[in-house]
Write a structure and sequence with these properties.
By secondary structure, the protein is α+β, with helices and mostly antiparallel strands. The protein folds into two domains: 208 residues, PmbA/TldD superfamily (PmbA/TldD fold), CATH 3.30.2290; 247 residues, no CATH class. 19% of the residues lie in helices and 38% in strands. It contains nine helices and 22 strands. It has a six-stranded antiparallel beta sheet with strand order 3-2-1-4-5-6. A hairpin with a 2-residue loop joins strand 16 and strand 17. Helix 1 crosses helix 2. The longest helix has 17 residues. This is Metallopeptidase TldD-related protein. It comes from Actinomycetospora chibensis.
Length: 472
């Protein structure tokens, strides 16, 4: 029988205490059960189910001049035999983490491990939860019924259930289960070459209405019947929630407090940071919240678990309770990400990166209503291949994909060529003139790392298309 994650954590902590009694220790086991299905040219091609379990050991070792941190991650053993041989994997992991800590030297983010916020989780000793390809039953039925001659359907669906056990030498014992998933689909019209994309994120794939998703995309295919060539330039542009999410995720990933304090980020200014600075006229709030920020499907467990230290997070903070963070509040920069040590250094509140993002503060208008009120402009579908150009301004570059449409007199009159764009999400918040209704959405670029997002469509009066991109 497979050893539970909690048993591995407890044994690793016991070995750590025996090897280096005066060190702090963190043991983290993550088991990921994942099911996937893929289709191409309106034919199901592949499906599968995998399970991966990994153990991470973090050792916080007293050194001359401070405390060093070392981390080792290994495939977690599925069983533990009695005696020293059965503990070999755990013993080697602890020893490797101790060695790494001593080589690294004193860490600037050193801090005592957080004390438990309460007793051990009631489900601490339970095993992992899993998923299987059975979750795609509704998707397969609706998708199969949607295939049509003369139309090509391509797509990918993913569902994973992650079970995590976190234990620390300070007494934290937390177990949680987080499901996540996504469905993304392309329809292509071979006669025109036009391609349309749509996607949805969901913790329960059975809730995704694939038939409705296909209908929405099919209604857009005729927009490609008229092909229009436009040059690079600045255009009034409507960004749908998916495109907005990809930009706001990168914004949130860039809100480290230390880089801002040290003058090396877009949130730096003379003598401090941009916290308190008004960005634009719209009262937009960008928040992350373990409770879901009004979207139950976005909830995540309010405890920090990390295997690396950086400007935004620290291994010394493992087990810390986290809560709602408003990165931008009513159009003003409100919070930057600080590990506890950096927060103490700069006199700022502790704030860890969040596992969801919700942008609110717009009106109730749908994207369709915003199109209807547009004199002349572009409507995007999604963005991809996003890369950073300049961290001091948060300038990003990327490409449009799967449909850019020209709007004239409140109607879509044709499909235009793709573009490369150069924009800063920070500047977009300054320049946006309209935000619509916030809805659950799926990031196109970052969905492999971040699926919990809810965003409104945005109107930007002068979105910068820097060059024409080949292809539709």
């Amino acid at each position: 029988m497979s050893t539970t994650g909690s048993a591995l954590v407890e044994r690793a902590l016991a070995i750590a205490a025996a090897q280096v009694p005066d060190a702090g220790a963190v043991a983290l086991v993550r088991e990921v059960s994942e099911a996937v299905v893929r289709w191409a040219n309106s034919t199901m091609t592949t499906n599968g189910n995998t399970v991966e379990r990994r153990l991470s050991v973090v050792m916080l070792v007293p050194l001359e001049g401070g405390t060093g941190a070392g981390v080792v991650t290994v495939p977690a053993p599925t069983g533990l035999a009695d005696g020293p041989e059965g503990d070999a994997v755990l013993t080697d992991a602890v020893a490797g983490a101790v060695q790494a800590a001593r080589r690294a030297g004193p860490a600037r983010d050193a801090a005592p491990l957080p004390e438990p916020a309460g007793p051990a989780d009631a489900h601490w000793d339970e095993g992992a939860e899993d998923t299987s390809t059975a979750v795609f039953a509704r998707l397969a039925e609706e998708l199969g019924a949607s295939f049509r001659p003369g139309e090509a359907s391509f797509g990918f669906a993913d569902h994973r259930v992650t079970t995590t056990w976190l234990g620390t030498s300070a007494g934290v014992r937390r177990r949680w289960v987080e499901p996540s998933g996504s469905v993304e689909l392309n329809l292509k019209d071979p006669s025109t070459g036009t391609s349309v994309w749509g996607g949805e994120g969901a913790t329960d794939i059975a809730t995704v209405d694939v038939a409705a998703l296909v209908d929405r995309l099919r209604n857009r295919l005729p927009w490609g019947a008229r092909q229009i060539e436009l040059p690079a330039g600045r255009y009034e542009t409507l960004l749908p929630p998916s495109a907005v999410s990809d930009l706001m995720i990168y914004l949130a990933w860039s809100m480290g407090g230390r880089p801002a304090q040290e003058g090396r980020s877009a949130f730096s200014r003379a003598g401090g940071t941009r916290v308190g600075e008004r960005l634009g006229d719209l009262p937009l709030t960008l928040a992350g919240d373990p409770a879901g920020a009004g979207f139950a499907d976005l909830a995540y467990t309010p405890v920090l678990a990390t295997t690396y230290s950086g400007d935004e997070v620290s291994v010394f903070d493992n087990g810390a309770t986290t809560g709602r963070v408003e990165w931008v509040r009513d159009g003003t920069v409100a919070t930057l990400a600080y590990p506890r040590a950096a927060a103490a250094e700069y006199g700022a509140p502790f704030a860890a990166p969040t596992d969801n993002l919700v942008l609110t503060g717009g009106e109730d208008a749908t994207l369709e209503e915003m199109v209807a009120s547009t004199g002349r402009g572009l409507l995007l579908t999604c963005l991809w291949y996003i890369r950073e150009v300049d961290p001091t301004t948060l300038l990003l570059t990327g490409l449009t994909r799967d449909g850019v449409y020209l709007v004239e007199g409140g109607e879509i009159v044709g499909e235009v060529n793709n573009f490369r764009f150069n924009e800063s999400p920070l500047d977009l918040l300054r320049r946006a003139t309209e935000a619509g209704a916030t809805e659950r959405t799926l990031p196109r670029e970052w969905k492999d790392w971040f699926t919990r997002a809810a965003m409104p469509p945005l109107r930007v009066p002068d979105f910068h298309m820097t060059s024409v991109s080949l292809g539709r």
